Amino acid sequence: MPSLMRILLMLVLSCGLASADTIRDALVSLCDPAKIATITAERGANPRVRKICYWLEMARKAGREPSSEMREVMSAVEWGGTAKGELTADAMTRNRMIAERLGCLDEVGMTTLRSGKAAVIRNGPYAGDKLSVDHIIPRAVCAELDTTLANLELMPMRMNSSKSDSIGERQVDMAKKFHAAGLLSKAGLDAVLAR
User: Read out DSSP for 39-98?
Assistant: First the structure.
């Protein structure tokens, strides 16, 4: 019980101390394409997705609309008003909503997400499972999208584990959008379409 009280106290303090500038600076740093380009580890952007989810929830708690916040962040990283900025903002906003629906934005979940780790799902048929990060277009098909934030989506670990590397209509549609936005090369698009 004392550790739960410490977690609650930390969350209350962090909510009170997280100014608009702190939230925006954290999100800009996490979404900065130049920083993401330096990631070399396989699935190295996954912790960023979880941290972005945390900071978007902090923005919401501070009275700001997460989708508007992400659009401001995209402007700050010079992707404002572009298709890649829109795709990225939409994906990260959707991830916060997924985490909310699955009950991962409680006090313990927020502490876990802030550190970039997988929160425990509290709601629905996957309750008790971990919240993992999945590639919309599978890494096995198109490794160049491994760290592309717009291609990363939160989902229950069991659901993620049971997925195959198959390509369906959604993946083809997203590949075309990613290519048109400059997030996916022609070779990458061809690899998706060949499946």
Answer: --STTTTHHHHHHHHHHHHHHHHTT--HHHHHHHHHHHTT-TTSHHHHHHHHHHHHHHHH
How do the residues of the chain divide into helix, strand and coil, expressed in percent and rounded to 5?
A: 60, 5, 35
Whole-angstrom Cα distance, residue 133 to residue 95?
Answer: 9
The model carries a pTM of 0.89
Collect the ranges in the chain with pLDDT lower than 50: 13, 15-16
Half-sphere exposure of 131 (CA within 13 A, CB side): 34
Output the CA torsion sign for 100, 104, 109, 114: negative
Q: Average pLDDT, whole number, for the chain?
A: 92
Percent of the chain surpassing pLDDT 90 = 84
CB-based contacts of 66, cutoff 8 Å, min separation 6: 56, 57, 59, 60, 93, 96
Helix and strand numbers (H, E) in the chain are 10, 2
What pLDDT score was predicted for residue 16?
A: 47
Task: In whole angstroms, give the CA distance from residue 98 to residue 81.
Answer: 25
